[in-house]
Please model this.
Amino acid sequence: MSDDTREISVDYLARVEGEGALFLKLNGDEVEDLRFTIFEPPRFYEAFLRGRRFSEAPDITARICGICPVAYQMSAVNAMENAAGAVVLDPIRELRRLLYFGEWIESHTLHVYMLHTPDFLGYPSAIEMAGDFPDIVTNALRLKKLGNRIMTVVGGREINPINVKVGGFYRAPLGTDLDALKDELRWAIDTAAETVELVAGFEFPDFTMDYEFVSLRHSDEYAILDGRIVSSEGLDIDVTEWGDHFEETQVEWSNALHARLKERGRYHVGPMARFANNGDHLTPVAQVAADAAGLRPGESNPFRSIIVRAVEIVLACEEALGIIERYVRPDPAAEAVEPRSAVGHGASEAPRGLLYHRYELDSSGFIADTQIVPPTSQNQASIEEDLRAYVRGRTHLDDETLQWQLEQAIRNYDPCISCATHFLDLTVERAGRQ
Amino acid sequence: MTRRLFGIGNPDRGDDAAGIAVAQAVVGWESEVRNTGSPDMIESWFPYDEVVIVDAMSSGAPPGQVHVFDGRRDVIPSGAFTSTHSFGPAEIVALAGVLDRMPSTLTLYGIEIGHTEFGEPMSAAVQSAVTALAEELRRA
Model:
């Protein structure tokens, strides 16, 4: 390293899930090298699942993530039912969506209020922010508790729900159990809508990216549980065709596989992608809130993803209330699903984006092969490209400011590195700096 | 006097199951099991007078050693507890303090752990600490 070279090292990136690193090498104003590294060791879940019964997949894969276990359960049950040729009836499907919206409320609330808002208000964490803005934080705690209650009532417990099975649920909740959530959901809709207004007023960097947005799309609703895989560039495929259009590749600097479109490379999953592809299916209050915030499908400033997440909290609360008001208790709580020798594909929209599962089953229902593609590994290339582009006009910033803004750019994605394979050493090396 | 115990950990990762194991073994407490600490625990403990949190801890001490912290008085070492999104017991207790949502008593037990391999049982030293702490809490 020459005397002109500057290097910044950060041992740990705060407010993300997991451990990783960022290496940035600058030569004057040129980005010579940039690597977003996930060094959490591989977790071998795909190997761990081989030889297990098809019925065990929802509970085993739920352990991959303490933040979004329902996403893993839902993609797993979708895949297993696809393999068996089974289709569940509407009451079960509705209950699954309710459980999933509980997880969205919980996960999005944590990110919007506790992890991301401190960036925009200039606090190192929610703890310092709470001193000046106690109402923001207490509302977040109440919203998050509501998400937990939904998870508990439908899923059996708030973390790693135990009530989900292939074919449906072990026990369907009583209508009276769900009715108890209504008043709190009505409060939550109003509070979440106010939050959209709050976060839309933040100051955002002038920064947009050219993304191919990939998500599920459902013909009748804002996709969360199922649908076709679509993109802003015209991709429109059945979930079973995932392998025809996407591939995973190993990069030497990361323990997580990078996913890419075979034809066009990097793509973007998550709230902005869902909004781009499902923006016509917003619920009424969410639509009003999005409009008032000036948000349009196709929004491509990743820093404004906090507004989209806030809109999705409104939507999740409205959808949850609607499901409860229409609730017909499934009887039986689950349909019998008989496994067969087949390959099953399943996808759903985890809070951070598309989560794809593929299972190869033998005739006795034992798992022969598995592929799990979480959202963060799909976004890894997109995160790197964001960082590369963001640095390009901002090399004049001092190291401390640059580091803060790059960390914020990563938090735009709410990356869950534990899912992708924990995060963040940041090294900025500047060569030829005057 | 109402009291609630939170056991935090991952039952599939060896010694990291310690907090959950205490919550499941203790008698006479209203207990709650969590795979990860979360700030909404503050909402869950707010109506209670006495709150206990048991979590795995890694400070370099021998596995099975139990560290005890008074949540209202002691500085809780953030890095010694595993957490998600940088929100572990230390941050949760600090946030409760800022929001003036502390219970009358808040005790945090950190059980020193050794291995955290997937699918492995707890080590004998940690199991022994779990049993002893559950008994101590039962008698409390």
In short: The first helix of chain A runs from residue 45 to 49. The interface with chain B takes residues 14-18, 43-44, 48, 63, 66-67, 106, 110, 114-115, 125-127, 130-131, 134, 137-138, 140-142, 144-145, 148, 157-160, 418 of chain A (CB under 8 Å). Residues 32 and 433 of chain A are 13 Å apart (CA to CA).
